[in-house]
Amino acid sequence: MRRFALLALVGFWAAGCDLSVTNPGQIQDEYLDDPKAITPIVNGVAGDFAWATTIPGGGGLYNAGAMLTDELVHVGTWIGLRLLSNGIPDDWTEADGRWSGASQARWTAEQAVERLSKLVENPDRDVNVATVAMWAGHINRVMGDHYGEAVINGGSPQPHTTYYERAITYFNRAIQIAQAINNRDVLLSSLGGRAWCYVQLGRWSEALQDMRQIPTDFVFYQIHADKTDRERNYFYWWGYLRDECSVWGTPFARWGLNLTNPSVSEGDPRVPYDISGKNGGDGRRPFWRQRKYKSYSDPIAVIKGTDMRLLEAEYALRQGDVQTAVAKINEVRQYNNTRFRYNLPLVSAQTVEEAWPLLIRERGVELWLEGKRIADMRRWATYGADFVQRYIPSVVREEAAGKPASQDPVRNVILSAEKLYLIIPRIERNSNPNYPR
Amino acid sequence: MGWLRTLGGIGCVLLSAGFLWAQTGTIQGRVTDARTGDPLPGVNIVLLGTTQGAATDNQGRYTLQVRPGTYTVQARFLGYETASRSVTVAAGQSVTVNFALREQAINLEEVVVTGVAREAARKEIGASIATLDVRRLEDAPILNMSQLLQARTPGVNVLPGGGKTGEGTKILIRGPVSVTQGIQPIIYVDGVRIDNSTALGVWTGGYSWSGLDDLNPEDIERVEIVKGAASSTIYGTEAAAGVIQIFTRTGRTGAPRWEYRSEIGQSSTPFDWWNVSLYSPWFYDNFVRAGGVVDQQLSVSGGLQGFTYYASAGLRNQDGVLRGNREEGRHFRVNLQLLPRQNLIVRFNTGYATREVLFPQDANNIYGLAINGLGGGQRGRFIPPAEALTTDVRGKSGRFTGSASVEYRPLEGFTHRLTLGADIVNYDNTEYFPYGGVSQVPLGRKVNYRRDATILSFEYATNFTRRLASWVNLNATAGWQYYERAYGANTATGRDFPTPGLSVVSAAAVREGTETRLNIKSAGGFAQIGLGFWEVIFLNAGTRVDGHSAFGKDYPYQVYPSANASILLSGFRFWEPLRAFWVPSFRIRVAYGTAGRQPGTFDAVRTWQPISAVDGKPGVTTLNLGNPKLGPEVSHERELGLDASLLGDRLSVEFTWYNQETRDALLAVQYPPSQGFPNPQLENRGRLRNRGVELSAMLVALNTAQARWSFQAGFSTNYNKVLDLAGMPEIPVHWSQKHKVGYPVAAYFEDRYILKDGQVGLASQLLRNPDGTLPDGWDYIGPSFPIRKVQLSTELTLFRNLNFRLLFDHAGGHYVESTTFRWLMNWTVAVNDPVLPDKAGQTVGLWAHMDKYKNDPVMQQYIQRPWGRGGPRGNVVVPADYWRLRELSVSYRVPESVLSRFVGQHVRSVMVYLSGRNLWRWFKFPLLEVESSYATDRDLSQQEYFGTPTPRQVVFGLRVGF
């Protein structure tokens, strides 16, 4: 009996004293304070940007922006996307996912700048520090474009322009290092990003200085791949494979190239789409598929020289300089004709009133589904009600109760939207003690 | 070599057992019903103070070989009074001890072991422990363990995922005790903890798996259910949601007793159950079928001196009611029991089961059969439903559960018990889209999920019983438990096959894989002390101290105390007049106990996750914020109850009131995503409560030699409420389900149409205050889990051999979120639809019940303005109340006189039966199935999404003993 009791006690001791376990596969925070972790950190920052802009919450920030503006119309079943497409602020779970993804991308990029600056020998001449600083600038910029307010690291809400100010800080750092080590891609991408922020802040003169340094043929892409779900360009899913987001009902249906029946559109090849022949997931609206992105691997332009030229055109028009504006538009069209062997006719305008529609259309077509339209719309909204009513195109909004989809109301994007931006969603509002309830 | 030594050891034990039993006497006898004189089969005969026992055969006879000495022989049988007799046996002598047992409505002498770590009479325990005697369900329509547990015990809810065969179930005891750590009880089989993970590992619209259903109901002798912390304290961390302990059959000394059971039958669903869509007739004709059921079971049991055995083999094949759904199960079990010495018993219990389930694509799934067939007819809503049948989804499991236990009684009243066991489970689940099978996956896809889980359990308990004085008895128990779980899972995904005919991941052009490994360890020591006064007052107190590998660095251990008292009022002298006046037994009980629920493996640590980025390069991003102070949530439960038999034992009543509160509840605290970690972090900061009553009653309305008619009723309520969310206004659960302070756990909150002051409109409009604000709770709809459950059953036995059994089951007061309803209201018939040409292109919803609600102003709003056309933005949440005829069976046991005349002594018993399950149903709201809920990674999510109706199941069975 004594032996039995001893056995029991030994068992208890053996079992009770060591409950430590080894569970592989988890990366603990301190593992990243190692120079060998630099490359994965940098990759992670770039990956988070690509992911946040195209995946969480039904296609990330870009698809949300496309829904909220006139780039695509919702024809599917996802509630959050339908709300945006109807011009209603989305406070559904998709909004939580979108915000979480973007915030994560911003925090990891900014944290990477800090961590890498301590890890590398000479942070002022290190390409990795420059790269993560550039991405920190871009994600701040994109959040500034899409959100109505800025919330940084659990703080109180601030104007959305805070993101632009923050982005400029990171772009400054990236530009400084890129110039020091002569890294063209990081330099031009950061200059373009900074110029964009200056434009959104109304600081046109500083923007023009940056824009002029960027050649028209410069394009900096975010990388997508079909190797894992997280790397995919989900425009291909929402707008082609899954019948959720349609070109039907947008001005782009008229401006673009209808591949199924080219004669019914203006035929701009920068906006290719086809008619699927079936309705979307909602069962009533036609599903016209975007064909700009033909696979999950297609990259998306982050900064383009053509964008800079068109912003310069916009500045010119704001100054009443029609000739310069038209020249800039045509420079973009000529570049496309040369680069892609398109046959885009050159445009002309004699007056500012004639030139504005050309520019608005050109920016829409040139930057279609690249996450830029929402910032354009928000900027144009500041040009006054008259400007909006006169120049901003219309798109299908809401549903005509009990009627076919062809009778769904068409409205001016800016006028019909209560607020042309994404709101800070519940997940942040409810968890952040500094956000007033 | 180790195995050889083990086998050699067993052989030696057997030989020595034979020697030791050479000089013996015999105790034999017969057990009968005191009133009718009928023999009672299956009565447990126990020699008190020893490890020896037997069970009566069909004639009520038993035989025990014993060493010379004086013994107390006890006869125990559920539903009958326990009887004891003292006898002295000399070497070579045979002593006859017969028992005539009196039927008793409440058996307070019934022995339970779960929750007390020793064999204890029910009257000694102040906490509520339910027992299910499976032998009494021989003719019930039970094909798996979930059906065995369903609608049997008040407070135990079996929530099916859906009506497809092989779909998993959730078991919820009383109410949800946790908002993050799962709501299901832990399960033990013969003292060994088993893995009951529900993850299927491949997404097919939300199927879950039920590990419990790997067990063969035919092998089960009884089930003990500990419903909450008041009685699960000795199981410590992880036991807050209750414990289900399953005991498999054991052999009895005597000649081999073979038993063969054969069942054939059919599962089916009438058209009305599918009639929710305009496409339902077409869908029903093309995809719904009657599925065959075949169940064959063979077992043998018996024993030699000092050695008993039970062995079984079973086979079950069942077709589901949807095309492409089938389940096949094979079960094997060998249980051995050795008695090398009179004070030593060694048990080896082993079971092996394989199960394979073929699922169709369905539920929340754009490739699903029902969503496409009911939502779009022949063309489908997303793909033609015929394409869904080209896919192949299957789950395969193999499970070995084995235990070895040693029970040693060195002295009278002093017992040691050591149990070692292992549960080893392997899953091999696949989802296969062939090349060219589904238009949206043109090149095909294959996912293979493999999971291994090994659970090792060790338990030691010692019990000391001593009569301190003539009026006081002491019971002391102490011991420890150790539990270790190693889990490994791999997912291999391949897509884009170069040619048709390929079906393995390695044949696909694009391949990826994942690997997950988790280890968990838990250990705890426990001690209990019990005092019994005059055999009528029993006081028990105990505690358990636990450590767990998932606790944070700053949280070394957790203490769980418990105490309970049981007072047998009918044992006092003052009760005599009442006893004479038809209240023969009456007990009151009170209990308090605590138990825990541990955090997840990595919840305490700050971690980052690996990602693939920039064209397949390795990257990292944030994952888990971490909290080194993380500990278990602790459930505190109080119970008050009474057990009474009335009307001279014709009516029995058991009543329990419980109040359970989970403190330090593990909340998924959402930190601002702007701080970089979007995933919620677990923290011990919440509080929730479950309250309710459980009542079961049985009335024997008629009890004569030729007829016995009894009625049973079970009633339970559960009102749960979130008391504290650490300042968070709400925590989203799943779609419309949220946790909010002051409301039930995972309740539904949503804008919806309502009728107020004769006006119909959205709640967000009609409930608005004059100042434009919305009052708190304006969007509250109701709880997602039943607040009341009712079971009503009756059993009529005629001429001792013909038996009728009927069981109605009701759940109510809760709601279910229906995506089916939302989509059918919203979707319309396409232009040129080949199935519904007369309605083609009309912008009317597909829902089939429009006419039924034409005078309902609220429903008219949904009909006129569904989601896609200006209605409320969420799913529709509807009442989920139901009544079902859960079981109906008729059985006939061929009289022994007939058997002996026609088949001689070779056949002991023959029973034939016809039984049905879910033969009738009533729903408050006409959904496909109000009980179904597609599986997510959250136990609390309840959403009906084109779920298959729980089918009717009719089987004809034959049970032969020989």
Task: Give keywords.
heterodimer; A: 437 residues; mainly alpha; Serine Threonine Protein Phosphatase 5, Tetratricopeptide repeat; 3-stranded mixed beta sheet; 12 strands; globular; B: 962 residues; mainly beta; Immunoglobulin-like; Maltoporin, Chain A; 2 domains; 22-stranded antiparallel barrel; 5-stranded mixed beta sheet; 12 helices; 9% helix; disordered N terminus
Structural class of chain A: mainly alpha
Strand content of chain B: over 45%
The CATH class of chain A is identified as Mainly Alpha
Mean pLDDT of chain B: 89
* Biggest sheet details of chain A: 3 strands, mixed
| CATH topology annotation of chain A | Serine Threonine Protein Phosphatase 5, Tetratricopeptide repeat
Shape of chain B: globular
The radius of gyration over CA of chain B amounts to 29 Å
What is CATH's topology name of the largest domain in chain B? Maltoporin, Chain A
Largest two-chain interface = A-B, 88 and 82 residues
- The coarse silhouette of chain A is globular
Question: What is the β-strand count of chain A?
Answer: 12
Main sheet makeup of chain B:
22 strands, antiparallel, barrel
- Quaternary structure classification: heterodimer
Task: Provide an overview of this structure.
The complex is a heterodimer of chains A (437) and B (962). Chain A has 437 residues and is mainly α. Chain A is built from 18 helices and twelve strands. Chain A has a single domain, classed as Serine Threonine Protein Phosphatase 5, Tetratricopeptide repeat (Alpha Horseshoe). A three-stranded mixed sheet of chain A has the order 7-8-9. In chain A, strand 3 and strand 4 form a beta hairpin. The longest helix of chain A has 27 residues, at 93-119. The relative contact order of chain A is 0.13. The mean pLDDT of chain A is 92. Chain B has two domains: 2-103, Sandwich (Immunoglobulin-like), CATH 2.60.40.1120; 129-251 and 261-375 and 393-619 and 635-746 and 784-814 and 880-961, TonB-dependent receptor, beta-barrel domain (Maltoporin, Chain A, Beta Barrel). Chain B contains twelve helices and 51 strands. In chain B, the strands form ten sheets. Chain B has a 22-stranded antiparallel barrel. Chain B has a five-stranded mixed sheet with strand order 11-16-17-14-15. In chain B, strands 1, 4, 7 and 8 form a four-stranded mixed sheet that branches. Residues 1-22 of chain B have low confidence and may be disordered. Strand 1 of chain A pairs antiparallel with strand 31 (607-613) of chain B.
